[in-house]
Amino acid sequence: MLEISRLQISRRTFVGGVGVSALAGLLAACTGPSTAPGPGAGIRWWDHFGGLQEQHKAWAAAQAERLGVAVEYSYNEPGRALEALQLANQSKQLPDVYSNIMGLPLPALVDSGWVSPIELSDEALGRLPEGTLVEGISMLDGVVYGLPSLSDRQYWACTWYNSEIAGSVGFEPPRSYDELRAALQSIADDGQFAPMTLALGASERIRDQVDDLAQAAGFPGWQGLRYDTGEYAYDDDTYVNAIELLKEISDNGWLLPGTNSFQIPDARGRWAAGNVGFAIDGPWAPGGVRALNEAHLPKMATAGELTPEGEDLVITRGAPAPTWFVAGNTPHADDVNKLLESFTQDDYQAVLAEAMDQPPLNLDTVADADVIEPYAWLVEDFKKRVFRAPQPQVRNGAANEALALITPVAPHLGDIIQGYLGGDVTDLKGELVKLSATFDKNLDQAIDKASGAGAKVSRDDWAFSDWQRGVDYAY
Amino acid sequence: MATQSRQRRRNLWIYAFLMPTFILYGVYTIYPIVASYWYSLVEWNGFSSEQRFVGISNYQAVLADPLFWSSVRITLLFMLVVAPLRIFGAFFLAILLNSPKLPFTKFFRTVYFLPVVTTTAIIGVVMRFILDPAAGPVAAVVGLFGLPPVDLLGESGTALVTTALVYVWKFFGITMIYWLAALQTIPQDVYDAARVDGAGGVRIFRHITLPMLLPFLLIITVLTIEDCFHAFDLMQTMTAGGPFYSTEIIEIYIYRWAFAASIPQLGFASAAAVLFGVLVLVVVALQAWATLTSQRIQSQRSESERTESQIERQVGAQIVRRTGKGRA
Amino acid sequence: MSTLAARRGNDSRTGDETRESADRRPKAMSHRPRRRGWWLVALILAALAFLWVFPFLWMVSASLKSSGEIFQGGLNLIPEALRWENYGRAWTAGQFGQYLLNTVIVTVVTTAIVVVRCALAGYVVGRYRFPGSRLIIGIFVATLFVPTGYTIIPIVKVSLELGLLNSLAGMILALGGASNVAAILIYAGYFRRMPADLEEAAIVDGAGFLRVFLRIMLPLSTPVTATVGILTFLATWNAFFLPLVFSSTNPALRTVSVGMQAFVGENSTDWAGMAAAGVISILPVVVLFVFMQKYFVEGIAGAVKA
Fold first, then answer.
1. pLDDT one-digit tens code per residue, B109-132
2. What CATH number does residue C253 fall under?
3. What is the CATH number of the domain that holds A194?
4. Is C214 domain-assigned?
């Protein structure tokens, strides 16, 4: 009421703060022993690589001994990792080292204190393959902010199948859409197994896989954006055909019941349980399967990635993205740099190779590593079929300013696919046209905002008229 | 002067008593509410300290988002499924459990209340297994009848109803206890008197029990409806809003933009939260109104009862009059 | 009063007819203790009760099976062999021992804080008029309900500034400071209805403000304390969102509900381990409920009576 003047409120707020602190002190005294060490006690290291959990735990222990500082490693499931990092950052408790899952351009991360510079010794730098650190992607003005450990040369929508089921049902490794249809049909006819499963509940993962399938089918760009024109074109036939294939698989009842709501580990786990023929998963599937059901490893087989008619696969990827970041507020900069240097060592690359998660930066280490044959085959395939893509932020660093301002779109491609398969979306083409328009609009708005703030950036930066499919792009 | 200083001493004590609430409530409830109003007016991604004032454009964006309206619709739909089932289902059960003739009432009460004490987030996980279309017991029952597997949580047509039914099951016990408490406010001698007068079970129920429970219906309805806005834990663990937003209640919509988006939109999420708060405020206003109304009904009735019993002490006649009134 | 009289008049007019119709019916009062009909009702209720607790039976059964056995599905609740090692896995690898301890600490301390602060506030709000009292009640009512997630962003910020994020103490204060208006109002309503001569007598005897509260009012409010205590206990034990946020950066601070979520993410195919973790998390509160059932029931009933 009137009695409470402005002055009293501010005094009360102050008293409140003091009071809460006092109460907290009391509580801390009561709950003392169970309050675990917070930040500051040692290096905290987070990542989202399911297949590397054991290896990273061991690596953390070994490095802790070498550096003489505690290294506390935690794994977050990919679906949760982003939330955990955001909460951590909003509370200024970012782990000292963390894996890159934000999907934000580097300058935005630097500006907002998410990351701090990484100082590597010349020896460590020398171990990195040529072209690993790229201005605009992992470096800004020559300062390194992110360390790649994993290869950019990979594709994500690998057709994994159970070789035992292939043997008993009798199908050939499918390379084209029709061959996959035939293989699924033969499993369905046989009746003992479920033909296929997917992580349909994880719409981001489905989005990534369909982006990959569309590119394999000839879409001249990635993630809906055409390299040649710089325009969004999610309604391209390559997208529609890939989605219709999934729709057909779903409508035929070829998906394991429950697939609609499977998260990534659910789908992989069910497939690894051995009663499902196919699963579309990344090259990292063997690592994940080992963590879930090691007995399934010998039955894993892959046919690479599907193309509509079985034509030769061409995949295009940008420069190696940073795998590791160092928190902007880390109190352990020196030790963290040393930990990161250890990631460039050959023995760490070998660990990565043997873990069969994402392929290591140095793909050649896989050949000598103890891996299952399909994994080695995939990595060889990557070397032949994956080419370097053009990236606006590499050609013009200012493009990053706009990229940082893009508003996320919901529903995104993955959601639309989920909705189309489930019957909630009926006009697929219409939704995709709308999606492209929204992306175009958001990009234009971001560019306007960025140039309004002084960045020299325009929509032309997104167009690479000289890009050719199947050739490494050179600026 | 003496009274004044006593008054002042008293007020000091009063403020001292209020201090813990002032502090904790102020810091953890009032300030955050005020702050979220501010956030709803800025553009802020949560990781930069930069907050750009954008006026009401966040509100415009939220109101223009079809998914926001879809989440409002789903929240209300969820309430429409859950509330009647809980209120009337629990009412029916409470009537049965309140009967002195029913054996094992205490056992039944325990069993039906049991889900209430269990942890919602864990129930959400367990229910996902139970409803699993490949290996869950529900699938096994469906299989017994030779029907094709049903994916209750994976189909957008059934997911919302399924989660709503789980929610009903989980919190049914609370509403049941509410009703049992309400039933126990009816004094036993009223029933006795009616029986002496020859009224049968159905008549007693219709002419005594029902009218006397009416004021409680309002309170219980409001309490239950309010409860329906707290479905975040269950939804997040069972469906996380999917498939294709079909179970995305407003709380999950807010959470998605605030914590689960690749670039968090805290201003946008706060605007959605404020709008949700407005929706809830409407319900709170309704609650205030309902509580007042029910209090008025109650006090009127107790007044009339007192007068009646003073005038004529014949309880039987009184009950007969009451039953007559009920019918008229 | 006039409307009341009119209604009463109305009542007596219809009264005679009713009495007649009632008299014509045979006196159907049964003094036999239970009729067959009620046993049938009991049977139906028992069947329903089985369905009601089936999820728990299934969970207990699954916690003793192998994961393969669960995956085969079916309705058989009896495991082939009792696999107690599932519990070992949940307890050590899943760290549910730690989570359970955290949950107990958080729940007990939060409940204590809420009961104390709501009793104090409810007492003065319910019993006294003082400068600002209407405003305070107004604020309470206006914030009676705050949706989940509404205030989480500022709560995180303020906890950070007070150095309380990432600690059980911070989690407890946030839970204890979150909206508990209903509890205050229940206390206020209860204290308001107490007869005034209670404290007048004490004041005549020379008792001060604090003494009146501690010696007279507080002991009399035991039923309300049970209500508030039990409702807070349940809400805190089951809390998910705040603990999720407060433990997001430090797994050692997880409560059971958050731990379950994490366990699912990391061991998605270990259904047996998850079921065991669920049993570990739910069992203590179920045991508590069975033994203190009376208080639970009265506590919740108190919410509607008050």
1. 889 999 988 888 889 888 988 898
2. 1.10.3720.10
3. 3.40.190.10
4. yes
Report chain A residues whose CB lies below 8 A from the CB of C168: 27, 31, 34-35
A308 shares its domain with A328: no
Q: Is A318 exposed, middle or buried (0-12, 13-18, 19+ CB in 10 A)?
A: middle
The token duo for A45 is: 């290291």
Give the closest-approach CA distance of C304 to chain B in angstroms: 6
B193: domain range? 41-327
Against chain A, the chains showing at least 3 CB pairs within 8 Å are B, C
Alpha-carbon Rg for chain A, nearest whole angstrom, is: 24
- Say if residue A58 is in the same domain as residue A174: no
pTM of the prediction? 0.81
A85, A94 contact by CB (below 8 A): yes
B26 within 8 A of C117, measured Cβ to Cβ: no
Cα–Cα distance between A106 and A140 in angstroms, integer?
A: 8
A 10 A CB-CB count for B249 gives 29
Instruction: Report the candidate in A197, A175, A199 with the shortest Cα–Cα distance to residue A187.
Output: A197
Residue A240 domain boundaries: 158-317
Contact A87 C248 (CB under 8 A): yes
Would you call A112 and B27 a contact, using CB atoms and an 8 Å cutoff? no
Q: Which of A4, A77, A83 lies closest to C132 in CB terms?
A: A4
Residue segments in chain B with a per-residue pLDDT below the cut of 70? 1-2, 46-49, 284, 287-288, 294, 298-328
Instruction: Out of B32, B134, B269, name the one closest to residue C155 (CB).
Output: B32
Cross-chain CB nearest to A104 (options B22, B50, B263):
B263
A216 & A237 share domain? yes
Interface test with B, best of A12, A80, A86, A87 (most B CBs within 10 A): A86
Residues in C 78-97 with any Cβ partner in B closer than 8 A: none
Rounded to the nearest angstrom, the minimum Cα separation between C221 and chain B is: 16
B122/chain A closest Cα distance in angstroms:
17
Taking an 8 Å cut-off on Cβ atoms, the answer to whether B156 and A423 are in contact is yes
Domain interval for residue C283: 90-305
- Contact (CB, 8 A) for A108 and A116: no
Q: Judge contact between C149 and B255, C-beta under 8 A.
A: yes
As given in the structure block, the two tokens for residue B88 are 């009337």
Task: Flag whether C44 is in a domain.
Answer: no
Residue A159 phi, psi (nearest 5): -85, 100
A83 burial via Cβ count (<10 Å: 0-12, 13-18, 19+): buried
Dihedrals phi, psi of A410, to nearest 5 degrees: -135, 135
Chains that touch C (3 or more CB pairs under 8 A): A, B
Clarify whether residues A347 and A206 are in a common domain.
no
Angle at C220 between CA C219 and CA C226, to 5 degrees: 80
CA distances from B219 to B80, B168, C187 (A): 17, 18, 17
Is position C223 within any domain? yes
> pLDDT tens digits, residue range A326-353?
998 888 889 999 999 999 999 999 999 9
Q: Does B245 touch chain A (CB under 8 A)?
A: yes
Of A21, A76, A88, the CB nearest to C162: A21
Pairing of strands A43-47, A71-75: parallel
Count of structural domains within chain B: 1
Ranges of beta strands (E only) in A109-175 are 139-140, 143-144, 146-147, 158-162
Confirm or reject contact between A266 and chain C (CB < 8 A): yes
Asked if B111 has any chain A CB less than 8 Å from its own CB, the reply is: no
Q: Which of C172, B37, B18 is nearest to A15 (CA)?
A: B18
Q: Classify each residue of A120-146 as buried b or exposed e, where b means 16 or more C-beta atoms within 10 Å of its C-beta.
A: beeebeebbeeebbbebbbbbeeebbb
CATH of the domain at B265: 1.10.3720.10
Does ipTM exceed 0.90? no
Q: Is the peptide bond before C131 cis (omega within 30 degrees of 0)?
A: no
